[in-house]
Amino acid sequence: MQNGLIRTARAWHGLTFSRQRRHRMNGSSSRLRQRGSLSEMAIAIPVLLLLGLSTLQGSLIYHGKSTLNYATFEAARTGAVHHGQEGAMRHELGIRLAPLQGGDGSTERAATAILMARTLVENRLQTRIRIVNPTADAFSDWGFDDPDSGELMIPNSHLRHQPNSIGSTSGVTLRDANLLKIEVTHGLELKVPLVGALLAKTLMLFDPENTVFYAQNQLPLKSVATVRMQSPAWKSAITEAADHVAVAESDSAALIEEGDTDGAGEGNDPTGEEEHGGDTSDEQADGSDDGDDLEPTDGSDQNDGDKEEDAEDEIACETSWDDERYQSADEGNWWNPLDWGDEIKAAAAVVWDFFSGLVAGMGEQVSDLLELIKDPSVMLDIAKAFIDDPKGVIEGMLTELGADVDKLMQCGPGDIGQLVGQSLNPALAIRIVGRLAGSTRLGRYADDLEAREVCASFPAGTPIWTPEGSVFIEVLKTGDVVDARDEQTLLNAPQRITATHGRVAEGYHRIETELGVIEATSEHPFWVQGKGWVEAKAIAWEDPIATASGDVVAYSNTYVEEATPVFNFSVESTPSYFAGEMGLWVHNAGPCRIPWTQPLPNFPNVTLRGIRTPNLFTGSPTRTQSLLRDRMALHYNLQSNSNLPSNARWQAHHVIPFEFRNNPMLNRLGIDINSIDNGIPLPCSSGTCSAIHNGSHSRYSAAVRQFLQDVEKMNVSDSVKRDVLIRGIEESREGLAKNNPPLRNSDGATVQQWNDVFNDVLEEYAEET
């Protein structure tokens, strides 16, 4: 019995243990299955997410390519009717790429998208337009000089009646030369997280030439379009487009070489420019106001209650501060253009209307001002300055201008801008706005505007004496020959025109003589016997004015206040010529400095262009020394040395040497050391004309170093220092072209000779001021 109980107990305990063991094993198996499911999910979810994100990114790329194809075609159509000009095509391309910037169907979002797209396409590192056809060789076969436009162009009319032969240089017929074929490369932003960055980094390994795009998380998309030209193609337009592409590619290569691709394309901020009209069509409303009936203010008070005097003091306003576009109810986010609020849009509307009115008041002489304001980075800076209190900013500006603030503020920004342009000091107004916005570009524009205002000139229709007879001044162009006189020897001789100048003057002096009448701006110098050079405004009764064959006596001098197109030019060797029916001896430019340009003796097909301030002071310095040579070869159509005999090879000389690329003043002023305007091609071999460039030039560099130090010590603004540097570069280019002084010389006189050149520049500035 006892043994049976023991066996039963053992069996029971064994059964219980077996059950417990099976229970533990079942629990463990369940947990293992659960862990296996979690592992599968951990693998599957990222894979599915990656596939989903990849599909989304692929869809966006397809959408981007389709949009770019359409935009490229529309850009080509625009170029076909604008002589193949890249600027017109780039403008149209920006409009047509607006869908890539998103939107919600509202007019405000559409306008913002257009502005963002136009901003992006202006960055030539991100968007490149290459004109594949017509080629430069096609102009050699079919081009002709158009006397009206001064352009070398390919004929576009009556093609069926033109010869269908194949050009010997280009290998194409005239009809084929009238096909415009463009290739657009645009960096599409890879917006999908993870996938975009992964795709960019992967492609960077297989496509290093486009590293600049991939480093900015962009995918370079290409599209080609071909259309028939609807206007004659201009060689200058084709060359300029090729120049821009070459510079973009060179800059890209430089950035890749220096590992600075992360910063490529910076400095193009979207703007708060308001596009009124609410659509995405080609025509962009500028918000400007005509205000044709506005009268200048006289600052008089209106306290007597007389209705007639009140009527005289009233201003006929066509704009008002009550306009809903100037009102704001919320704040926007500067860093997200798609979330710009009413406050930002209102400030931008005030800025745009004010400057539109300013242009309407001043006329064509500031027609390029609106193009500057359209630059998103400039508009954004100005709008930021205006955002807190637009009316207060305008009032403060008018106070500085000495205007009747209460009277002018009765009108809106458009009318105020027009009155400032008509009656006050527009250059000072632009400078004030530039100071408030911290915009150096507006400050430079104001400086240039003041210089334009004092540029001595003659009205259109003034006869200029030439060896072939008299020619109206507005018809003359660079390369034409005019009769001139040497001030030292007083001998007359024909001289070439090296540069031309035109503007709109506020008025002119009408000078009557015994043999006829001549009109000139106030500052234009005439040679008065016994006095020398005398400005037009200072010519007195019975002053004997020198002529080509004697002199004539002035009988009267009257100022005519009337907006008038005026013109002038510079002469190659002797700065004077003969003007008017009487052949009065006049100076070629007066106080207006026209840049030095001249053909180079060693390079018969090269004429150095006048220095262009925006191209020299870009604010984006390039650091690769060979870039200047690439730019000059393309711009001046110079061959590679590998294709030239040893006695015809050349080198690109930096006028301000490349060794000064890290000079603090030059960096502060924003000079591009590799700008074409800071360069001159010089022969490598010995020659009798231009200076020889063959290795280092320590003595020349020493003189430049001293010049830079002297400029930095000047107690003047940076804008003035830029102007002095331009003069120094011009004088250096002239000396190098004439080999006087020489660039390299074994004797010790070279440093002093170049010091004299630069000291003359500083002394000339000191005399003017």
Keywords:
alpha+beta, 23 helices, 22 strands
How would you concisely characterize the structure shown here?
The chain has 769 residues and is an alpha+beta fold. This is TadE-like domain-containing protein.
Describe this protein's structure.
- By secondary structure, the protein is an alpha+beta fold.
- The chain has four domains: about 60-265, no CATH class; about 315-455, no CATH class; about 460-585, Hedgehog/Intein (Hint) domain (Endonuclease - Pi-scei, Chain A, domain 1), CATH 2.170.16.10; about 600-769, no CATH class.
- Helix content is about 45%, strand content about 20%.
- The protein has 23 helices and 22 strands.
- The strands form eight sheets. Strands 7, 10, 11, 12, 15 and 16 form a six-stranded antiparallel beta sheet that branches.
- Helix 1 (about 1-80) runs antiparallel to helix 2, helix 8 packs antiparallel against helix 19 (about 625-635) and helix 10 runs parallel beside helix 15.
- The longest helix is centred in the first third of the chain and has 79 residues, at about 1-80.
- It starts with a helix and ends with a helix.
- Mean pLDDT is about 75; it is low at about 260-310 and about 330-340.
- It comes from Granulosicoccus antarcticus IMCC3135.
- InterPro entries: AHH_dom_containing, Hint_dom_sf, TadE-like_dom.
- Pfam families: AHH, PT-HINT, TadE.
Q: Please describe the biggest sheet, giving its number of strands, its sense, and whether it closes into a barrel.
A: 6 strands, antiparallel
- Helices, by number, come to 23
Computed structural class: alpha+beta
Instruction: Summarize model confidence as the mean pLDDT.
Output: 75
Q: From the alpha-carbon coordinates, what is the Rg to the nearest angstrom?
A: 35 Å
Total number of beta strands: 22
Helix content: 40-55%
Ends distance: 135 Å
Shape: globular
Q: What are the segments in which pLDDT stays under 50 over at least 5 consecutive residues?
A: 260-312, 331-341
Q: How big a fraction of the residues is strand?
A: 15-25%
Number of domains: 4
